[in-house]
Design brief:
The complex is a heterodimer of chains A (203) and B (252).
Chain A (H helix, E strand, L loop, with lengths): L3 H34 L3 H16 L2 H8 L10 H25 L3 H9 L4 H31 L12 H9 L3 H28 L3
Chain B lengths: L1 E12 L2 E12 L3 E6 L5 H8 L7 E6 L2 E2 L5 H6 L1 E5 L10 H5 L1 H5 L4 H14 L17 H13 L5 E5 L7 H18 L2 E6 L2 H7 L2 E6 L2 E7 H4 L5 H7 L15
Parallel strand pairs in B: 3-8, 3-9, 6-7, 7-8
Antiparallel strand pairs in B: 1-2, 1-4, 4-5, 9-10
Classes of the chains: A mainly alpha (203), B alpha/beta (252).
Chain lengths: 203, 252
């Protein structure tokens, strides 16, 4: 355990970095996608449907599929990130769409009737009213990604999965715990911080 | 001067006729009440005025100009709109809600804030901390008043009301109806007012237009509506249970 101490610190940081980058990219894609599709029932179904498909693929299999894929595949962090982004997308897109769709019709109607432009309605009315729901999606995505990212080690993504996989192959439960406990702690911390911000956003 | 004019307006949704050849005019300064049952097309007629929808056939003119030829955003910013429950933005304060139209119309912050104060006085909510409250911290009647104040925000000459007092208890409703009458007296606005409540129509309308299944069944001065003979009008008049005329004392 003593020898593993500096390693688990490095790996925890690497893990947190993987998750932070993956969730940031997922937000950068998912938030605009959700906002743009929320108003169009047809596009919305396609977006949510394709995001759901990724969600149904077992994570280990998705990592496996991506390794031989041209351009985006290979062994290493980039492939791991792509897989993590795909997983993080669904809760973010879904909650953005649901949040915006659940804005009261009378509120949206009066915004239109008062002469607000689509852009003003989205930014000043819909987005603020959907903020809590969207943030909940980001929280769910973050917590899930922290767990899924442990599997990224299987394709050379690094992170706390390195300790877990090594522990499994060496039948060393100490090593497994050295990976699992910090991962669980990260997840709890992320959940706590994001829940707190969510509470602050109460309308 | 004609503020609003409907010329043989037809409106269909997926081939189903909602309005069938409706024509009427609203002169500047008068209140035309669109009276009708649910599904008669009265709300649709209202929505055609500020380009929330466009006629399938015929045209709607606002200040002499067809809505189809107008920029919808500019048109809407010149018309106040009040709906049931106010449609207020729940995440904004009362002051921010009332200041919406002035800001959309590019007023300065100073002018907007002066206007908001003026309107808070108009609706009798200038005391206390009303300006900084959120809509959910108000009673239903207060929310409705703020909704009217918001519609008056940029001082538009035309106001549209879609059953604004329908969800209120009868006493609050009467208070707001009386307030509406005094406000109209002072501000000289043109109003198109949708309701299914015949006593409200008689109380508030200078004229009444009765819509029945998408057709204009009757139109004329509110005072003449009581003597209207056609069955659709009689059906509404039968809803008046009290024998005395509302506001009768003010006539004599």
């Amino acid at each position: 355990m003593q020898a593993a101490t500096p390693e688990f610190v490095t790996l925890t940081l690497e893990h947190a970095w993987l998750v932070a980058v993956a969730v940031s990219i997922a937000i950068a894609i998912g938030l605009p996608a959700g906002m743009l599709t929320a108003r169009h029932a047809h596009v919305r179904r396609v977006a949510l449907g394709s995001a759901s498909v990724f969600q149904t693929i077992p994570s280990l299999a998705l990592f496996g599929f991506l390794v031989p894929a041209p351009f985006i595949g290979g062994i290493g962090k980039r492939t791991a990130l792509i897989a993590l982004v795909l997983y993080a997308l669904l809760p973010i897109v879904r909650n953005t769409v649901v949040g915006i769709a659940s804005v009261e019709p009378t509120v949206r109607e009066s915004a239109v009737a008062m002469g607000m432009t689509d852009r003003q309605i989205l930014l000043q009315v819909e987005a603020p009213l959907a903020a809590r729901t969207i943030l909940a999606g980001i929280r769910i995505a973050t917590v899930a990604t922290i767990g899924t990212a442990t599997i990224a080690a299987a394709i050379g993504g690094g992170g706390l999965g390195v300790l877990i996989f090594r522990g499994i192959s060496m039948a060393d439960s100490g090593q497994i715990l050295a990976g699992a406990i910090p991962a669980a702690a990260l997840a709890l911390m992320a959940d706590g911080v994001l829940s707190w911000i969510e509470g602050k956003l109460s309308v | 001067m004609k503020a609003i004019e409907f010329r043989d307006v037809h409106y269909e949704i997926a081939g189903r006729p909602i309005l069938r050849g409706v024509s009427f005019t609203v002169e500047a300064g008068e209140t035309l009440v669109l009276l009708g049952r649910s599904g008669s097309g009265k709300t649709t007629a209202l929505r055609l005025v500020n380009a929330l929808a466009y006629p399938t056939r015929g045209e709607v003119l606002v200040n002499g100009r067809a809505t189809a030829d107008s920029d919808p955003i500019a048109l809407r910013r010149g018309i106040g709109y009040v709906i049931q429950e106010g449609g207020l933005f729940p995440h904004w304060t009362v002051a921010a809600n009332i200041g919406l139209a002035p800001r959309l119309n590019g007023w300065t912050a100073q002018k907007t804030s002066a206007r908001v104060d003026e309107l808070l006085t108009t609706i009798g909510m200038d005391g206390g901390d009303y300006a900084s409250r959120r809509p959910r911290q108000l009673s239903g009647g207060q929310r409705q008043l703020v909704g009217v104040a918001r519609a008056l925000g940029a001082d538009p000459p035309i106001l549209l009301f879609d059953e604004p007092f329908g969800a209120l208890d009868p006493i609050t409703r009467l208070e707001l109806q009386n307030w509406f009458l005094s406000m109209r007296e002072r501000l000289k606005k043109t109003a198109l007012f949708v309701t299914h409540d015949v006593s409200e129509a008689l109380l508030l309308g200078t004229r009444i237009a009765l819509l029945d299944e998408g057709e204009l069944a009757w139109e004329g001065p509110a005072a003449d509506f009581r003597r209207a003979r056609l069955p659709q009008a009689q059906a509404f008049l039968a809803c008046l249970r009290t024998p005395e005329e509302p506001g009768a004392s003010s006539h004599a």
